[in-house]
Write a structure and sequence with these properties.
The protein is built from 17 helices and 10 strands. With 477 residues, it is an alpha/beta fold.
Length: 477
């Protein structure tokens, strides 16, 4: 019976047509920075460990997408010397993120060596490139997320008033109020470890991420001699700190009923959509790379409905985490196939990719298949993405600067000149929106003062926080 069954399988395999090999024709990578100093200390910096992490992650993607012997090689991309028309890398104006981008790119396209990294001049002189043929890849600047690693406030870097209002709504939610109350004793039990940076009134769930971040950095870098009462930070306590920080930050980053809260993810989705579309049409790069903070990860995850695939997508990704949107096809031959033969696959890895690590593929938008047709991906992404300035200005309630031009242009037609049956013009609506934003923020400050006894105070030069109103003070460190 067994022999007959095996013979049947062999015969069937011989009669079946050979499946086309999958080809990768483009990719867009979004990566988090590596290990850094604590936010509460101010002037955050990428550490040597962080540099190593992002370099290793970049090296993994070199082996996966740049090495022309890889099964995932991006078809047509230069495998040794970077072709700058094929690669587009970007990061916000932020020291940690930009340095992480540079370190990551060193792994993606490492030095080419003395032989390839040299040139002969007309006079016969040979010039060696510095650093063994170090390859220079410029980082473009993206407008969202400036100084994000020096800010303790998720929306403080989005320049989107309506997103700020939406995130502040989290502090009025039943989930937040319950956790603020139920975790008070837990946080105060950790006070001996926190006295250098937090006082009694700021040691609570309101500062869940800052506390976790401070202790996480100490756990990684400080010996017991330099980390008083470190015995209090056992595995169970660390896990609880991380769980609470996850709940706090995901609540600020995404809310299904208020899409503007995920503005950072919506902007990223628009940039990814544009980048991949340019790859397909031949108008752009084969490989896009962007570097950002965990808040952008969380809001993007929420918008793409990834928590339906795994609850882990509601948690803060580790240092040097990355996800990729791959363009893949089974169409035979070479070159870019027709769009109806292209699929999109999302892969993610939490933390640094090294050794035998492999990113895992997850389905997008609540579907069950890890491959999504390009047309479906475009259709679904357009529903949640910010794709132009007019869209951004409208969502955020902005009417000044470039948005003044957008608002004026939008109001030039009868259909767009009002916000609805009430006939309020967009400029007037923008002023009202700004006033509502201010009123909500002031109102929330009053709520915090009444509930938690918080006061506004300046941060000490050496990082100690005399008191904190969390998001409301919007301290820039």
């Amino acid at each position: 019976m067994r022999t007959s069954f095996q013979s049947g399988l062999l015969l069937a395999s011989m009669m079946a047509p050979l499946a086309s090999a999958e080809r990768v024709v483009g990719a867009y990578i979004f990566a988090r920075h590596g290990d850094r100093t604590a936010k509460v200390s101010g002037n955050t910096e990428l550490t040597d460990l962080g540099y190593r992490e992002v370099f290793d992650a970049g090296s993994f993607y070199n082996a996966r997408y740049i090495n022309n012997s890889s099964a995932k090689y991006i078809e047509g991309i230069s495998s040794n010397v970077v072709n700058l028309t094929q690669v587009q890398a970007s990061a916000p104006v932020d020291a940690v993120l930009q340095n992480s981008g540079t370190g990551f790119l060193q792994g993606v396209y490492p030095p080419v060596g003395a032989t390839m990294g040299s040139m002969k001049l007309a006079n016969g002189t040979t010039v060696q490139s510095p650093l063994q043929g170090y390859q220079l890849i410029p980082l473009s600047v993206v407008g969202d997320g400036d100084d994000s690693e020096d800010s303790s406030w998720l929306q403080g870097t989005t320049n989107c008033p309506q997103a700020t209002v939406s995130s502040n709504n989290y502090f009025l939610s039943s989930q937040y109020m319950e956790l603020l109350s139920s975790t008070n004793d837990f946080y105060h039990s950790l006070s001996p470890m926190l006295t250098a940076a937090f006082n009694e009134s700021s040691t609570n769930f309101l500062n869940a991420y800052e506390i976790f971040d401070y202790l996480n950095v100490a756990r990684i870098h400080n010996s017991s001699a330099n980390f008083p009462h470190s015995d209090l930070l056992n595995d169970s306590v660390y896990h609880q700190l991380l769980t609470l920080a996850n709940a706090h930050e995901y609540g600020l980053a995404y809310n299904k009923s208020e899409p503007v809260r995920a503005i950072a993810g919506a902007i990223l989705a628009g940039e990814i959509l544009e980048g991949l579309n340019d790859t397909i049409t031949g108008a752009g790069e084969l490989l896009g790379l962007q570097f950002g903070s965990y808040g952008t990860f969380l809001s993007f995850f929420g918008l793409m409905q990834l928590p339906k695939a795994s609850i882990d997508f509601t948690g803060i990704p580790d240092y040097a985490s990355s996800f990729v949107l791959e363009l893949v096809t089974d169409a035979p031959g070479t070159g870019m196939p027709d769009t109806d033969e292209i699929n999109v696959r999302f892969t993610f890895h939490n933390g640094t990719l090294t050794g035998s690590d492999e990113p895992v593929a997850y389905p997008l938008f609540g579907t069950s298949n890890v491959l999504m047709s390009w047309s479906d991906f475009v259709s679904e992404t357009q529903k949640i993405a910010v794709t132009d300035d007019t869209n951004l200005c409208g969502m955020c309630g902005l009417t000044t600067g470039s948005c003044a031009t957008s608002s004026s242009s939008a109001s030039s037609t009868a259909d767009d000149s009002s916000s609805g049956s009430g006939g309020i013009s967009r400029p007037v609506a923008g002023v009202i929106g700004a006033m509502v934003t201010l009123a909500v923020i002031l109102g929330l400050e009053a709520v915090f003062f009444l509930i938690g006894g918080f006061t506004i105070a300046k941060r000490r030069k050496h990082g100690a926080v005399e008191s904190s109103t969390g998001a409301m003070t919007e301290d820039k460190k």
